[in-house]
Amino acid sequence: MPKKDQPQGERLQKVLANAGFGSRREVERWIEAGEVVVNGEVATLGDRVTPDDRITVRGKKVGSWRLKEQEHRVLIYNKPEGELVTRSDPEGRPTVFRRLPKPKSGRWIAVGRLDINTSGLLLFTTDGELANKLMHPSQRIEREYAVRVLGDVIEEKLKQLVNGVELEDGPARFEDIVESGGEGSNRWFHVVIVEGRNREVRRLWEAVDLKVSRLKRVRFGSVILDSSVAAGKWRDLEKKELEGLLDDAGVPAGKTGRSYASPKSRSKPVPKGKKKRAAKKSVWRR
User: Basic residues compositional bias: what residue ranges (predicted)?
Assistant: First the structure.
């Protein structure tokens, strides 16, 4: 391995995560457990490697081609209700990964999750570093949801939700609430959060004694779920969308040090007029 005073290559955990072996946290746990060997020696956190190094992960040899910089892809997927965001399910329930194309290298990494009863926009990428940046709380990337709420939605409760309520894992709030339709006991809203906590949107409404009957994510950062992607379908991000997403992650386009694949010919182009949400009735903000 390279000497400490002459660092070469990339950090081991970053290389293995980008190659699709797992998240960076998973790889770091394997390294700490002594399950990664480089050039015959047990690796430690902070080690740097190049494609010329001999690496074994959990007893399996890593091909040198997997250590070289690959062309990455980023997909948008429209998740239907009833699918799990996991690679396999002991109960045999359908997962989102069964519908995705096989990447040339690495593996698909989901940017965040949606629960089984939530539909809508999911992003997948083969770039582990980009996925980590997009999911990191410090980026405060907006997630927008269309939500149908059952119950008596009075203005006081909406003000509570934008000012903040206490959940079991700490305070939380909506950045924005826009009423977008419905009548009687079922009303539709568009809400925005900047965290990715488990079931956060549902738990926020439950905190003010209201029930979510439908939930769909319609935007992640600058990427909007439009009519070009039907439920259960995917497409590669277009160039402008990818540039916007990289900017969301704090990585200006052209300065990533990595390359991304161009959209496949079978992918549908982004419509000139993106799908607009329902006309605003009332807006609640902090």
Answer: 265-286
